[in-house]
């Protein structure tokens, strides 16, 4: 039997994606746990103490990767929502819906850890700084998307309405990223740039990158798990779902 060639659309079918994600999720969880432990060990115990901020700076190993993920996941959510809207790809809309809670979580973590970092360094928990304010707006966009898609019963209409909000809100992401360049803000500039060497010790950079990969692995694991649940919810009338449920019931009865 000839193998079916893999194309970009091979796993666009919810049934195929469901099976693939089920195989990947355990490995992603394992990677997330290992990378988190390694990243925290390097960041908390190996990386040197900062000569200006002391040990208070170590919160950046959670704060900075969380802030990066909050922006990346929003763009991913807007991208998949737009694909689902433009080409009526059901799985794309499901992925967008699954991405939103994880993106909101990372945005909240970025704001929360930023407040704990700001208190010893700035002397205050919060200021209406350009970057802080635009990051807070990002959290509101995530919450708004979740509320809007959950408020509409029809999945197609909910996906289209959410896509419109996600696409319009994407303009906030470059504002967050470039806010420290465009305005005179209290928030410090980027320590890592594509055009110049990083302004931090190698062990600090390593810890931050390892934690970033850990957050990526966590995001994939959670989003794939949530997408599988959404697939079962929205495809409940499909024959393959009935066959899957029957198979699980039979396996449970035998066990």
Described by strand count, sense and barrel closure, the largest sheet is: none
In whole angstroms, the N-to-C terminal distance is: 34 Å
Number of helices: 8
**Helix and strand string, N-terminal first?**
HHHHHHHH
Number of domains: 1
Strand content: under 5%
Taking all Cα atoms into account, the compactness measure Rg is 21 Å
The helicity comes to: over 70%
Tell how many strands the DSSP assignment holds: 0
The outline comes out as globular
| Overall CATH architecture | Up-down Bundle
Q: Look at the structure and give the CATH class.
A: Mainly Alpha
User: Can you tell me the residue ranges where pLDDT is under 50 for at least 5 consecutive residues?
Assistant: none
The CATH topology comes to Four Helix Bundle (Hemerythrin (Met), subunit A)
Mean pLDDT: 89
Helices and strands: which structural class? mainly alpha
Summary of the model, kept short:
The chain has eight helices and no strands. With 255 residues, it is an all-alpha fold.
Description:
With 255 residues, the chain is mostly helical. The protein has one domain (23-48, 55-187, 201-231): Up-down Bundle (Four Helix Bundle (Hemerythrin (Met), subunit A)). Helix content is 75%, strand content 0%. The chain contains 8 helices and no strands. It is globular and about 65 Å long. The relative contact order is 0.16.
